[in-house]
Amino acid sequence: MLKTAALLLVSNVFMTFAWYGHLKRHQASPLWIVVLASWGIAFFEYCFQVPANRVGAAAGMATAELKTLQEVITLGVFVAFSALYLGEPIRWNHLAGFALVGVGATLVFRPW
Fold first, then answer.
1. CA 100, 106, 108, 112 torsion: positive or negative?
2. pLDDT, tens digit, 9 for 90 and up, residues 82-96
3. What phi and psi, each to the nearest 5 degrees, are found at residue 102?
4. Residue ranges making up the domain that contains 29
5. Which of 17, 34, 86, 92 lies deepest, with the highest CB count within 10 Å?
6. 8-42 CB burial, b ≥16 within 10 A, e <16
7. pLDDT > 90: what percent of the chain?
8. What is the pTM of this model?
């Protein structure tokens, strides 16, 4: 699972920049240019996301576990990106909501 998580972490860094990176310096850029740039960045996201899913599946992870791991990593990357790159404060309600997602994630990975 560690290799899958590492690949998903890199994947999510690319995707977070593809989705939100333009909000800091490219508000005035034409939308079609921003979309094309985001697609270009997203290509590299897929270069890590697809292998992550294959490695995880080969290791016996269920697709629900793969998706849940990806979402938890996405939230972690997003919190860091939002605070460090965009300079937005992380509020208590954001953390509380993300914690509830974490509770849900523990249910997915819990052996029954």
1. negative
2. 999 999 999 999 999
3. -60, -40
4. 2-109
5. 17
6. bbbbbbbbbbbbebbeeeeeeeeeeebeebbeebb
7. 78
8. 0.84
Q: How many residues does the chain have?
A: 112
Domain total of the chain: 1
71, 65, 79, 47: which is closest to 109 by C-alpha? 65
Residue that the structure tokens 């270069």 belong to: 47
- Of the candidates 34, 108, 37, the one whose C-alpha atom is nearest the C-alpha of residue 70 is 108
The average confidence (pLDDT) of the chain is: 92
**Structure tokens, 39:** 């697609």
Over residues 28-57, the pLDDT tens digits come to 889 999 999 999 999 999 999 999 999 999
Element of type H or E holding 21: none
